Each structure stands twice: as structure tokens, then as C-alpha cells.
């Protein structure tokens, strides 16, 4: 399989890349990890006239925290960097849990988190994680920079709000108020498959009290789903068996699964409830868990 | 110099070829390629290194795995132009003229292949693992190979082969 013919540029600066996009409008497409775009081009689902390969742009492969605890992930930070990141292991339990579950190890060497968010696949794992954490995408264009909350960034399946001459340069995860807890669980038929069901839970705790709870669902609707009611139900109180059960029910209600070759809608909804319960029980105080 | 175009010149729009310079198994190469040429096709057809296999052509199976600057990548999912300035490693680079690489020996000793189609990809993914982690657990081997599909063996002997190679490499290093 071959992509359609296209012109190719590999700019050395962000300004040059934005200039190329500006001059070519909708006909140009940014190539980062290429692990979704290249297959789409080979299948002729995408036929851009110009590929702007940003892999030579310097200084975009970072992931680091600001002094205030804000996490920033550059557009060329590969999944594999995040999978092996001590920073994530110690400070970002939800992201650390998701990183080894993205695609397969070889794809993780090339694919990027920011690219995954831009691709906006309803079955993409990172979108749920970033949504649960209240994160955003920073876009740079000829007119400057803007930060777009992920809920506004994705407008539909495979669609985002970027203007044709904007590049997503980083993803931003705000600092936690308190201690982070949570995780990501993914049901897949085999490694590398898309999620049958994925659940991201991101909690911020002050002592035993939940100060913020984000729950987001992968693969159980036409887009990534923020289970807001479930998160709200947990906020402002300690985790208890009762509050966990209630939140799991609300998350299952928020899911919009469809029956397909991966499973029935009923089964998928049940798995959402199960995953939310499991993730929250892990964050429960030990005394409560024993009871 | 290798010149590769997927279609004869003059068909459709005029797309300039790009000159790229890269190394394959340590040997410097220059090629002029059409932007849409895939790295796997450059390796197989341009360089004649047919040890890199094309399996699914859809980023699933890992048969086309090569090393890009030492890291496994699916060469059917990279453009050849993206190899510019990088080091590519293929299965042909494992053995010397007289000696098999310990991974190749391991696959022979432990019967790690049947049809052999997935084997080059398996070996290169395993090489990257052993370069980073000379003494992996069985679980770590399975995890590292989870992007490479085999339709013959059930993986058991492939995992054994990699562990065999790891032990051999450690004993050679000792």
C-alpha cells in the first residue's frame, strides 16, 4: 500500500513549520510520530498535498514540571519516554498507568501523546487520561499561542479545533491540589488493539477527602466521554464503599457503548462500572478497604 | 546512489524527489526517493535487503521491524525520507561473515521459528531489549515482544530463544 503523492518538508524551526502550514492551508498536514497518520495515508483515508514533518524541530521532546507542579509534555515526547518516566511514576499515577498500555512497544517508540490527542480517535487512550486530569493542548499559530482545554479541543471523531495553520506544541496537565491518586484500566483483546473499554480515574486527595475527581471513558461512545456526574459525586468527601458504588453507577450511565465485534453494549457498560470500582477501591484508605 | 520512484515520472503531479543520506548496518548510503516511499520499500527494493519482511502493512504485526538509532520501529509506518540522517539496523546486520549473532543462535537452538516470517522483527525487537537490559525476566521478554506477532509458534520458543541469547551474551561479556 502506498500513500497518494504528496510534497514533503522537514522544517528546522517552529516559525518555518507554521509558515508552511499558513501558506498551504487545509492541504497540509503535520507529521509527528506518524503511527496513525501514515496508516491513514496508506489506506487513502487521508491524502494531504503537503506533509510538514516536525521531527527535526528542536526542543519538543520534553516532559517536565514547572515549579508550581504543572506538567508539560512536548509535541515530540514519545509514548516510550512517558512509559519509562520516573517523573510520571512518582507524580502522575493515572498517566503512568496508561503509558504502557498505549498501542504496542514498537509503536510507542515513535508515537507521541500530543499527536494522539490531535488524532482525536474516540478509542485513543491518552484523550481520556488528559480529560480526567483536566488537561489542555497548547497551539501555536501565526497569531501566537493559545491553550485549549481538552474537552473543547476535540470536536468529534478524528476532529479537533486547530486552525489549518496551527500546530499543537504541548499538552499541559495542571498541578494537583493535594495528593494524586488514580489509574487507567484498559480492556483489549490483545496488545496493540484499540480499547474495548478504557477508564481513566484521576483523584486529588487532601488527607482522606477527595478534593477533585476526574473520570473519563475510552471506546464507549462516539467520542471520549467525561463522566462528570460520577466525578462530582466523589468530590468533597472521603471514599467509601457507598460513594464508590454510586460513582461507578453514574459512570456506567454516562457510557454510550455500541454492540460490535468487541462485545455487547451491556457488557461494555458493565466493564465501565467494574473498572471505575476497581480504580477507586485502590485509592481507598486501607482501613476502609479492610472493612 | 539509489533512485526510487513508485511511478514513472510524468504521471500526475510533479513531486520533487529528495536526496537522503543515512546508514544501514553501519554503511553510509545516499538515495533519491519520492516522499511517499515507505522505509520498508527502500530497504527491500532499493537496498535489496529482503530480510525485512512486509506482513500486515497496517502497523499491526511487526514483521517489518527495523532499528532506527537503536530503537525498534515499524518500517512500513515510516517514510523513507524520515531516515535522513539516521542509523538503520536490519536483520542482515546481526551476523558477521563467519558467525551468527547469539540471538540467531538462540532461535536455532530453541526452535524459535517455524515459517520464519516474523523472525527478523522478533530478533530486532529482542536486540533492542537486550541492549538495554542484558538480564531480562521472561515477563520482560514477553512484554518487549508484544508488538510482534507470530502465527506459528505460540511464542513459547521465541521467548526461550531470547533468554538463551541473553545468557550467551552475558557469558561472552563476562
Main attributes?
heterodimer, A: 291 residues, alpha+beta, Uridine Diphospho-n-acetylenolpyruvylglucosamine Reductase, domain 2, Uridine Diphospho-n-acetylenolpyruvylglucosamine Reductase, domain 3, Enolase-like, domain 1, five-stranded antiparallel sheet, 13 helices, globular, B: 174 residues, alpha/beta, Ubiquitin-like (UB roll), DNA polymerase, domain 1, 2 domains, 5 helices, 6 strands
List the helices and strands and how they pair.
The complex is a heterodimer of chains A (291) and B (174).
Chain A: E1 7-9, H1 14-24, E2 28-31, H2 37-42, E3 50-53, E4 63-65, E5 71-74, H3 79-83, H4 86-91, H5 93-98, H6 105-108, H7 113-119, H8 125-132, E6 136-141, E7 144-149, H9 150-153, E8 154-156, E9 159-160, E10 167-173, E11 179-187, E12 197-206, E13 209-218, E14 225-226, H10 228-234, H11 241-254, H12 265-283, H13 286-290
Chain B: E1 2-4, E2 18-24, E3 27-33, H1 39-46, E4 65-68, E5 71-74, E6 87-89, H2 102-109, H3 119-132, H4 138-144, H5 156-173
Parallel strand pairs in B: 1-3, 2-6
Antiparallel strand pairs in B: 2-3, 4-5, 4-6
Helix pairs in contact in B: 2-5
